[in-house]
Each structure stands twice: as structure tokens, then as C-alpha cells.
Automatic annotation (TrEMBL):
It is found in: Plastid, Chloroplast. The gene is rbcL. The keyword Metal-binding applies. It catalyses: D-ribulose 1,5-bisphosphate + O2 = 2-phosphoglycolate + (2R)-3-phosphoglycerate + 2 H(+); 2 (2R)-3-phosphoglycerate + 2 H(+) = D-ribulose 1,5-bisphosphate + CO2 + H2O. The keyword Metal-binding applies. It comes from Celtis sinensis. It is an enzyme of class 4 (lyase). Its EC number is 4.1.1.39. This is Ribulose bisphosphate carboxylase large chain. SUPFAM superfamilies: RuBisCo, C-terminal domain, RuBisCO, large subunit, small (N-terminal) domain. Belongs to the RuBisCO large chain family. Type I subfamily. Residues 1-112 form the Ribulose bisphosphate carboxylase large subunit ferrodoxin-like N-terminal domain. Gene3D superfamilies: Ribulose bisphosphate carboxylase, large subunit, C-terminal domain (3.20.20.110), RuBisCO large subunit, N-terminal domain (3.30.70.150).
Amino acid sequence: DTDILAAFRVTPQPGVPPEEAGAAVAAESSTGTWTTVWTDGLTSLDRYKGRCYHIEPVAGEESQFIAYVAYPLDLFEEGSVTNMFTSIVGNVFGFKALRALRLEDLRIPTAYVKTFQGPPHGIQVERDKLNKYGRPLLGCTIKPKLGLSAKNYGRAVYECLRGGLDFTKDDENVNSQPFMRWRDRFLFCAEAIYKS
């Protein structure tokens, strides 16, 4: 109830024992760093460090094992999926002691789940805004995800909406790149929505 539990499938580099690799994953994804620094003495690192509490071999895979790591809830910002995943997997996958690493499972305690507020409103508000009832809402992600000009992106949105979709969304890679700045995309998409 006080820790987020992660199960990592670990393939260590040759010569690295499973216990060392598991401990390295726990350290690198929490308080560990490549050297001791003077500021280590200003906090209780033991309170905040991730702990590899169990290791078990993967059946049929000679060089792989599952490392179970516990992370104290104090390591995470309340209500932030981004912070949780960045903390757990954001820095550990390129670790030199490992040949391969995969996050297999996460157990998130109820106390942490309760810090997430959820969506600001439910499906009924979405249906009311769209004036669409009695059927699933249909949408798509505009493709190609990268490379369209803002004008062509707006054209794709228009065609999707005219074709019967209720909404479109940006791909996660779409931000404000030089070929399609956010403001330009916004203006062309607003025009597409208005005209459709």
C-alpha cells in the first residue's frame, strides 16, 4: 500500500549477476547516480530509493529474469501519470549493465490512484457538445502523423468530419514543428470544423 511495484524483464550484459542488474535498475530509476555527490548527505536516500525485492528466472529463457522493484510513493507527484512513467522508465533503458529491459507490469496502490482526478467531465458532456446520441462516437488520428503542412492538415480534418467522423486527434508526435506550427494548425483546423 505504500509502494508502486514494477516487474521488469531483465537481460543483463554477460558477466553481470541478476542481483546486481536488478539492484541497478532499482537505483537508476530512483535515487541512484553514477557517483557519490556531497548533496547525498542532505537527505535520507534510503527513504527514497527503489528496492529490488525479488528476482525470478524467466521459464525457458536462460539469460532473462524478472526483477521486482518497489518504489516509495513519495518519489511521485500526486496525480501525474507523466511523472510516474518518466520516473520509472525514463532513464533506465539505456543502462550499460543491461543488454535488454522491458517493463512487464505495474501495481499501483489505491492511495496513489486516488490522487488522479480523472477527466473533467464525462461522456454525457461530450455527447451534448457534439449533439450525438444513441451511437458510438467515431474519430481518428490524422495521418501521416508528421510532414503535413498546417493547411493540408486542416484539409484532412475537414474531409474526416465531412465523411462522418465526430472528431479527429493529433498524433502524440505532433507539436509545433517547423513544417506545421501549432497556431497555424489550430487556425486551419478551426476553419475545417466550422465549414464541415
